[in-house]
Structure formats: C-alpha cells, structure tokens
TrEMBL record:
<dbReference type="Pfam" id="PF01812">
    <property type="entry name" value="5-FTHF_cyc-lig"/>
</dbReference>
<dbReference type="InterPro" id="IPR002698">
    <property type="entry name" value="FTHF_cligase"/>
</dbReference>
<keyword id="KW-0479">Metal-binding</keyword>
<keyword id="KW-0067">ATP-binding</keyword>
<dbReference type="InterPro" id="IPR024185">
    <property type="entry name" value="FTHF_cligase-like_sf"/>
</dbReference>
<keyword id="KW-0436">Ligase</keyword>
<keyword id="KW-0547">Nucleotide-binding</keyword>
<dbReference type="GO" id="GO:0030272">
    <property type="term" value="F:5-formyltetrahydrofolate cyclo-ligase activity"/>
</dbReference>
<protein>
    <recommendedName>
        <fullName>5-formyltetrahydrofolate cyclo-ligase</fullName>
        <ecNumber>6.3.3.2</ecNumber>
    </recommendedName>
</protein>
<dbReference type="InterPro" id="IPR037171">
    <property type="entry name" value="NagB/RpiA_transferase-like"/>
</dbReference>
<keyword id="KW-0175">Coiled coil</keyword>
<keyword id="KW-0460">Magnesium</keyword>
<feature type="coiled-coil region">
    <location>
        <begin position="1"/>
        <end position="28"/>
    </location>
</feature>
<comment type="similarity">
    <text>Belongs to the 5-formyltetrahydrofolate cyclo-ligase family.</text>
</comment>
Amino acid sequence: MTHTKESRQQLRQQLRQARRSLSTTEQANAAKHLVKQFQDNLQPLLINSPSPKKVALYLANDGEICPQYLCEFFWQSKIQTYLPVIDNQELKFAVYTESSQWQSNQYGIKEPVATEYLSPHDLDLVFLPLVGFDKQGGRLGMGGGFYDRTFANKKVHEEPLLIGLAHNCQQVDELPIESWDVPLQAILTPSSFIETKT
Ligand SMILES: Nc1nc2c(c(=O)[nH]1)N(C=O)[C@@H](CNc1ccc(C(=O)N[C@@H](CCC(=O)O)C(=O)O)cc1)CN2
Ligand SMILES: Nc1ncnc2c1ncn2[C@@H]1O[C@H](COP(=O)(O)OP(=O)(O)OP(=O)(O)O)[C@@H](O)[C@H]1O
C-alpha cells in the first residue's frame, strides 16, 4: 500500500479527536470494562505464575483509555507496575506505587521520579497507549516513535508481550504501517481481546 506521512498525520488527528470526544461517563465505563476483559482473557497468564510479574502501563492523556482500575487490580494482586519515562528518544521504566513522586515530561505527562529503572526487556508485559490499531497488530501512536525505538530489537516471541489498550473507536481496517512500526501481539478494548497473527 502506498501512503504518505500526511495521510498518517490526518488519520492521527481524526482518531485523537474521536477519543477526546468521549464523555466522562463513557471514559469511566470503558476503563471499568477493560478490567473485565483483562480478567477474562489475560489474568491467568499473570496470576498463575511462580515469580511476580512486571507490567508496564501508562497515565491516560489526550482521551486515551485509562488503565487506572487495571493498575489498582495489579497492586492488589502483587503484580509489579511500571510507567514509561522518556530518556533520549527512548523509554525506560520506573516503578509505580501509591507513594510515587512525580515530574512532568516535555508533553506535560507525569513520570515517576526514580533512581533505578528497569530495562524494557526485563518487563513481562507492556500495555501500550495508542491512537489507532488494526486487527493485524498495526499501531499508530502519538508520533514520537518512542515505543517503536524502545522495542525495535525485540524478536516477536521474546519478552515482553506488547499489548495495546484502546477504545473501540480507535480500530481501523488497515493502518498505513511503516518499516519501523513494532507490531502488537494483542489489543485489549472494553468489549474484546484481539489476538493478532504476529
Ligand atoms: N499516556 C501516554 N504516555 C506516554 C506516551 C503516550 O502516547 N501516552 N508516549 C508514547 O510514545 C510517550 C509520550 N509521547 C507523546 C508524543 C507526543 C505528544 C503530543 O501531545 N504531541 C503534541 C505536539 C507537542 C509538541 O510538538 O511539542 C501534539 O501532537 O499535539 C504526547 C506524548 C511516553 N508517555
Ligand atoms: N527504531 C527506530 N529508530 C529510529 N527512528 C525511529 C524508530 N522507530 C521510529 N522512529 C522515528 O520516529 C518517528 C515517529 O514514528 P511513528 O510515527 O511511527 O511514531 P508512533 O508509533 O506514532 O509514536 P509512539 O510510539 O511514541 O507512540 C518517525 O519519524 C521515525 O523515523
């Protein structure tokens, strides 16, 4: 498929507008249903495991589906939770607890203040924010390339599992994909768990 940087940018604007248009009630319901979808589809992977699992999520921004209820479930389940911290065009991951201290990155998104960071490859699972997705595992992000750079050298079957979190309105038939786009292994939405063929 031929596509231009402009068409990707146009799609990004449309999909960002769609998620920002959701009401507060719709956002809260979506976030709650996400936990149910997680419990039905992914929980066995993280809970019935001999060693504590390490999971990255994000703080919702710009209408993104909010992982906070999911995070509270993880805290209760002794699953270690991490947040991304921008470092030199890539992401590193800082532990996220109820007593985290905060600083803001250049986009105004809060990041935990930390002295130690986890290497991205030591995570078991990463829940990625996204602007758009397709069921083939294509992901359109905010345009910084941060997740793509961070996981550029990851082989598909190596850890961590990369799973996108999205509102239903963020699904498209087929995204214009670039060579550097890192594929998602699955996408969790308030109404479904979509496993891709990656
Ligand atoms: N919640 C969340 N955290 C995240 C990401 C994300 O997508 N969502 N990121 C995923 O990689 C990184 C931040 N990436 C971002 C990239 C662009 C913009 C943004 O708002 N861009 C503005 C232009 C700002 C400018 O030019 O300085 C815009 O497009 O309006 C925000 C976050 C790390 N943390
Ligand atoms: N592995 C990589 N190495 C170098 N540059 C990269 C890499 N991956 C992406 N980029 C650069 O990052 C820029 C943004 O990429 P893209 O539009 O795919 O970001 P995105 O997936 O929307 O953003 P994000 O992952 O931050 O949510 C592109 O111009 C691309 O050249």
